[in-house]
Specification:
Blueprint: H1 5-18, H2 33-45, H3 49-85, H4 90-148
Helix pairs in contact: 1-2, 3-4
Length: 160
């Protein structure tokens, strides 16, 4: 069941409101630890997909860079081998040398672009994740502030 984190936090907040006050504790309330742990597990299970995606991207980034480096090295080796085979004639050798340099430049450019693309993608996912988490932190801070408010736990006339 996919429940929003806001709904889960509302359930926790409602449970706090329904919990009975402990005498002589300055407004502390009793809540079932098992129930609260279950709700925390639900929050973890319903974290935004961006968080999981960001973790995967960070893990995959090194593999993407390594793959790009291996591809670049393979292209360079291939170009070097091709150049060695073509050394028999002067003109062919010059053409092979130019082609190898071009292949090297292209492979280095491709490796740079792949690294930049992976970094930009990871940065974007992490930025969006940070924005989502910042919003959630604001919600949590607001909930904590409400819990700390002295008027929040006063007896309500309608709660007799």
């Amino acid at each position: 069941m996919n429940v929003s984190i806001d709904d889960l936090l509302d359930e926790i907040d409602d449970e706090i409101d329904k919990a009975w006050s402990l005498p002589l504790t300055g407004g502390k309330r009793a809540i079932s630890a098992d129930w609260l742990r279950e709700k925390i597990d639900d929050v973890r299970a319903n974290m935004p997909s961006e968080v999981r995606q960001a973790k995967n991207i960070v893990a995959d980034r090194a593999e993407i860079i390594s793959t790009a480096r291996r591809e670049a090295e393979a292209i360079i080796r291939k170009a070097e081998e091709r150049a060695r085979r073509m050394m028999s004639e002067e003109e062919v050798y010059k053409q092979a040398e130019a082609a190898a340099a071009e292949l090297l430049a292209q492979s280095q450019q491709k490796a740079r672009e792949m690294r930049k693309g992976a970094t930009d993608f990871a940065e974007d996912i992490l930025r969006r994740t940070e924005e989502v988490l910042a919003g959630r932190i604001g919600d949590v801070r607001q909930a904590r502030q409400m819990l700390r408010s002295p008027n929040r736990f006063e007896e309500r006339p309608d709660a007799e």
